# Entry
Amino acid sequence: MTVAKRIIPCLDVDNGRVVKGKHFVELKDAGDPVELAVRYRDEGADELVFLDITATVEERKTLYNVVSRVAEELDIPFTVGGGIRSVDDAYNILRNGADKISINTMAVENPDIVRELSIKYGAQCVVVAIDAKRTYRTASGFEVFTHGARVARKIDALEWAKKVEALGAGEILLTSIDRDGTKEGYDIELTSLISSNVNIPVIASGGGGTLEHIYEALTKGKADAALAASIFHFKEYTIREVKEYLKSRGVKVRI
# Structure
């Protein structure tokens, strides 16, 4: 049976406000996280992702109070990432209402945490975020970056995706740093490469600007879900419009 593709809005949060930039910088305010979460829930979002984008760089904990306020309004799966450095940090995020935790920098620096979290909470709860950029310094051409896309790790994105799956990750949130915030379309080559070589769901992220871009990520890119921010925050499209378009193109979605 064909599994429905998912549409997932993303709340990039800085100092308690949703922001959106380009290539992970040039951030501008996009609104209140609770208000946006309610809007996306009502529009038919399949899930919601909340990323505290400066927690790791600033070496602080995730904004638990904001996470809790958002979670109280949701009845859809809720993933939270940013600033998770231990199993205890993950526990506190789950205790504050998240359904899944997303780890990036900590997974690279301590891969065993992926296994620990998977054993403790189940693979379905563990999302590994991979921020990748074309540097041509690795076999696949795509290199893993951490610390909000600021630090190059000399790790091949494809090999890392395979490794986190083996460690017990239940899902991969794959962001193209090159395309982030550009609205020029997802990196289909990157998305297809990862999606074709792992057996866990891949969420495409970075570059969504049109309905066609989302369609391509889910078909040519073989992603299981498409994550977007700008087009939803600034009301260029509603989630319902995206789903109606995908349905009209033969993509199975939940309406």
Remarks:
- Residues 7-248 form a domain with the TIM Barrel fold (CATH 3.20.20.70).
- The longest strand covers residues 6-14.
- The CA atoms of residues 247 and 253 lie 6 Å apart.
